[in-house]
Amino acid sequence: MTTPAPPPQPSGPPPSTPPAPPTPTRDDTGTARERSVGRFQNAPAWISAFTGLGGLLLGFLGLPVFLNSPTANPRALPPSPVASAPTGHPATTTTAPPPASTPPASRPPAPSPWSGGPPVFTSTSVDVPSDYSITLTDRPVRPRERSSLDLKVARNEGFEFYAGERVELVVLEKGETGAYDTCRTVTRFTGHIPSGPAIRPGFRFCALTERGATALVEVEAVDPDEQFIRLRLTVWEDDV
What we know:
Elements: H1 26-67, E1 120-129, E2 132-134, E3 151-155, E4 159-163, E5 167-171, H2 180-185, E6 189-190, E7 192-193, E8 204-209, E9 214-222, E10 228-236
Antiparallel strand pairs: 1-10, 2-3, 3-4, 4-7, 5-6, 5-8, 8-9, 9-10
């Protein structure tokens, strides 16, 4: 039986042992420990110093600031000054114009006796006694005791009217105007307008002559003793 050979041994010197860390000396460890302990021992002193300084600042500065703050003591704002007018000059007040309003609808004017047709020949008032006659185209119009003129005024229990020769009378109704065109258009001709309650101020009729004169006759007044009647005459110049 063969015996194995022993493993080869490394050549050279054996490895050396690592050096041990240096052991601190007493002086070094004592100085470091004293420095750490000194710092912690001085911390309460610094805290007390800062606390005292903060209290001093709060006492002299913080308290007034706190008392004067808007949230600590709210006070009403003083009223704003109102500007007054300069001395010697009264204050002026500007008044706003009233709203514009819609004007009421105006009524159409009543037709005038002078509207339309030829120019007005004459317009006058005349007092005509009973049993007197007038010529419509006279200037001035004067009553005469003749029955052959354009219009005769008579009295029979009141005033009444008679048309002269070649003259036509037309009584106007309430809704008809006294314009030239109305007198020339209406054909309710008559030669006699009898007396009655209608013969009073405001009564109107037309008179048309064969000569071409057109007249509006209006009763303006009636004598209380019935001695005369006042007529308003508007005569248009046609073929006068």
